[in-house]
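stuck on this chain:
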Amino acid sequence: MSGLSVKHLLGIKYITKEDIELIFQTADTFKQVINRPIKKVPSLRDITIANLFFEDSTRTKLSFELAEKRLSADVINFSSSGSSVKKGETLLDTVNNILAMKVDMIVMRHPLPGAGQYLSKNIDAVIVNAGDGTHEHPTQGLLDSYSIREKLGEVSGKKVVIVGDILHSRVALSNIFSLQKLGAEVKVCGPATLIPKHIETLGVKYEPNLIKALEWCDVANMLRIQMERQDVKYFPSLREYSQQYGLTKSILDRLNKEITIMHPGPINRGVEITSDVADSDHSIILEQVENGVAIRMATLYLLAGKIDQAS
């Protein structure tokens, strides 16, 4: 297979298993690059990428920016705070003004689901979705699956439980799509109020009991509670949530097997996961961060090929 089947990366839902495997193979190469003394390649030297973040982000924004610079792209950063968006400018006008500066690719995070899809229908540049509302966060889903493959040898046949705020999590949805396309079995765990009503339609089972979920799984991906997306109370208190769904070292020690612990960050230590778990040998949280740069380099590099085809 010579390239991706899509022009944009809007969600894992829209790409194939072959696309994911190609991204992983390309990321393997870039992972070697970022572990060399000179961590840069000239692959995107003639490409200009705009990072448009209409929502606060630290890790994703830094990861994309580092990936772009490792590929030698020209990078411009846009933040909606202090921009013309605050003065009432539309998304399309904002983006068209940026495209007038001859930008080839746009990496966008936006609070509204479908924002990237809307843009892809109205502009020529390649779009990479860095998170849209509670919809998808495709590069996070890719890097999580890639990290499982790296740790356990393959994703196919593995049992993965995603624990926490599934209802408000775009990470959960991208993980579900990515893991299933690669042949993993997925369960979700958390308070019933934080589980989408029709989760079973995605081929995912719900396990309300954390201990049972952990006894079943090979990998536990612990999500944070997204207080900023909750307009009503979904559980009595963080303390009560932590008592029922927080992962502690004593819980891990009671299991009759070793499991791999993941977290997309940022971590609320002492809520969904304790420090001694996050920093333990079970955890691949820092590996996820490193793999994020390699996956984003691979994605940008492969999508840049679509620009050459279009021109």
Observations:
- The first strand starts at residue 48 and ends at 53.
- The first helix runs from residue 17 to 34.
